[in-house]
Amino acid sequence: MHVLVTAASRYGSTAEIAAAIRGHLVDRGLDASLLDADRVTTLQPYDAVVLGSAVYAGRWTKPARELVERVADQWSDCPVWLFSSGPVGDPPKPDDDTVDVAETMEATGARGHVVLPGRVDRSLLGFGERAIVRALHVPDGDFRDWAAVEDFARTVAESLHAGEPSDADVDADGAIPERPVAPRARPS
Ligand SMILES: Cc1cc2nc3c(=O)[nH]c(=O)nc-3n(C[C@H](O)[C@H](O)[C@H](O)COP(=O)(O)O)c2cc1C
Predict the structure, then answer these.
(1) 160 in contact with ligand 1, CB cutoff 6 A
(2) Is pLDDT above 60 for 38?
(3) 120 CB within 6 A, ligand 1
């Protein structure tokens, strides 16, 4: 089973979360590829997708939103999970309504969405963004929750493995009964 892990990141912290998710999926026996969201042109080679984005001003970033549109007709072909990287601070804020992904959930048919704490490094920000975080008293720091990242990856992996046919699932005629998450046939 080949999983695409893809994310849109402005300052790298969401990309590092995506890389960690990929690593956890590989550790759990899945074949997983990592690509920046703006480099994904097709979902055809993949049996499942994990898509994430950093959150800025309550929205997913443009490359993530554009990817959802770009392959709009392909999401229904495979299981999809979403993650958003945003809240910062201890406790992380905003703690509710971080991002509205209802439309994205619907467009992708995603099975789940998780909000994961993020990182703000003022030294990387441009003038305008620095002014915003100062005005909103957004704290500087790395608040990413690697245990939560692993939990999310585990949920994805367990769901995908639950849908994989095993020897015991093959009936007397060698046919594989329909599964909740059936791997998609690869294009020939
Ligand atoms: C200007 C600015 C606006 C932000 N707006 C939000 C927001 O609306 N909601 C949120 O949860 N996080 C917000 N954040 C926090 C970022 O989403 C968080 O730092 C994220 O981890 C950045 O990911 P990246 O390094 O991949 O770009 C904002 C950060 C900055 C600098």
Answers:
(1) no
(2) yes
(3) yes
Q: Which atom of ligand 1 is nearest to the CA of 54?
A: 23
The pTM of this model reads: 0.89
- Which DSSP symbol is given to 175? P
**Helix pair 146-162, 13-27: axis angle to 10 deg:** 40
Considering only CA atoms, which of 145, 100, 144, 101 is closest in space to residue 120?
144
**More confident call, 82 vs 175:** 82
Regarding beta strands 80-85 and 59-60, do their DSSP bridges make them parallel or antiparallel, or are they unpaired? unpaired
Q: Which residues contact 128 (CB under 8 A, 6 or more apart)?
A: none
CA pair distance 113, 43, nearest whole angstrom: 19
Report how far residue 69's alpha carbon sits from residue 92's, in angstroms, rounded to the nearest whole number: 30
Please state the atom number of ligand 1 nearest to the C-alpha of residue 17: 26
Average pLDDT of the segment spanning 104-129? 96
CB neighbourhood size of 107 (10 A):
16
Three-class secondary structure of residue 83 per DSSP: strand
Give 118's DSSP letter: -
For the domain made up of 2-164, the CATH class stated in words is: alpha beta
